[in-house]
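Hi D.,

Good news: the full-assembly prediction came through. Inputs first.
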Amino acid sequence: MSTAQAQQKICSEWNPVNKNEYKGIWVYVEYVNGVIKDGSLQLIGKARELASKINTDVTAIMVGNNLGDVVKEPIYYGADRVVYVDHPALSKYIPHVYANVIVQLANKYKPEIILFAATKRGRELAPYVANSLRTGITADCTELDVDPKTRDLDQVRPTYGGNILAHIRTPSRRPQLASVRPNVFPTPPRDTSRSGEIISETLDSIPSINGQGLVEERPAVKGEEMPPVEKADIVVVAGRGVGGVDGVKLLTELARLLGGTIGGTKKVVDAGWLSADRQVGQTGKTIRPTLYIGVGVSGAIQHIFGMKESKVIVAINSDPNAPIFQYADYGVVGDYREVIKELIELLKSRKGS
Amino acid sequence: MHIKSNELGIIMSGLTIIVPVKAAVPNVTAVRLDPVTHNLVREGVPLMLNPYDRNALEFALRLKDKYGGKVITMSMAPPSGKDFLESTIGMGADEAYLITDRAFAGADTLATSHTVARSIQRLFPDFDLIVFGEETTDSTTAHMPAQVASWLNLPYVYYAVEAEARLEDKVIRVTRYLEDEGVYEMYEYKMPIIISVYKNSNPPRDLSLVRKINARVNGLVKVIDNNMLKLERECIGLRGSPTIVAKIEDAKPIERKRQLFKGDPKEAARWLLDNLTKEGVIRP
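Then the structure:
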């Protein structure tokens, strides 16, 4: 550290940081209601890649109660070590309580990087952890890299409407925190022959809830209403080629089976087959789901403008010359009704098995 | 003054609810960036109230309608932020505060949350709830509610759709919706707590132009600067910000695979599902 840096006055509410004391990459592995989130496992894969560049290791952090064998899972997906806190007071997810547990662990072990899956719960948890450690955080990164010299995490996120990529760094503080949306990175293969260190950590004090905390849970009624197009991970979009309301109904069934939502082109909305809030395109909504499925969509440029940032694009159209195929990862030429019916059958049989 | 009494006849005032709001840039694709800091240049840019903050204000106003008390909006913004704070009064807020000072400029989310949290502590120490919008449309981090909760060491809950209060023992029960899990959860805490409101809930009520104009004519938006707040220079603005924008670049168009399948619909469906499963975009 240079003299100038050492002398620079910092906020009196910040702890002084000696960067050399911070080592290793952490991934917070979200485990709620018996499920490990894929987004967390995907980050273990990315963390491995970063760790090899700066010659360090990957630790998964888990928090909960009666975790049992699930603490081995991060090892199978590539972690070197799992540090977990298992306590009856942690049987229910309480945002500030879980966050404070992670903060205590980070203060003890001093990792240089902590990654969070930007699930709804992850987006709630990560900023509290970062703030309590008086450090920076970057939300919804689409790429992560690490500078082998400075060990600074290069956090890339689209900003200002998605046309610009910002590279964000936290040069003077540690740890460096980032969140990444699920499915930005692939899930590493599960390898049960891998082994690693598993550490059960006990804390001096579990933070108090200050009330009853979580008192009730209930699943939303299925099909109650479909999520809006700009917020769903999977969007099935109807184009004029679907022919009418019946076609839209068929696609809605597919969207529901996929856990996604239904949208339409301007022509479909103008025809009154779908409500205006479901229009995708320049004069409608811009979407960037992980999966876009355009059915009977020709691919007018005004429509492309509203969906071109989707992670994976599928087009189904009877016209092999439809412009949308130029923008698609996977295209199927054929009668959409037959293809969609087969897709629905396949998805139903998968769920049934 | 809103006074309520419970069954025991104990007199208490309703809820004091703070709604911090943000001046969002309406058209994020047509803005200027500072060539050195890569920060958004906010001076001289027409500002609007972040749309999701209106849902938060609606959430707060519904609580006030039910339990009495007052709703106070505040914003850390350039001086031009006065206009959208007048709109919050037009919607029904009782008071509005503009927190503005050159010293706050260049803040990342840590420094911003410091300014918001410490301002609330100094200006409204007796608050019951701080209610935020889910995120802003121009930076979409959703950091602020959790960060302010951390500075103030308070419980917090995101994605709230409704809440019920028990004034006699200062308890609030919040229902929230987790979109990715399709689950509602109910949390119960002692107030004060921090709430962030689900953006697809609480559609905002209409703004009363009369109230808004009245706010302007009578100068109802109070302006607070750092001479009054006396926040430590090292904790705010650029100096209180650990993150830097090291570089910006144009987002490159995404390369597409352009694989085409023609033939039997059954095989087409199988081919699609296999590929989409491999891509990790649908569940196996």
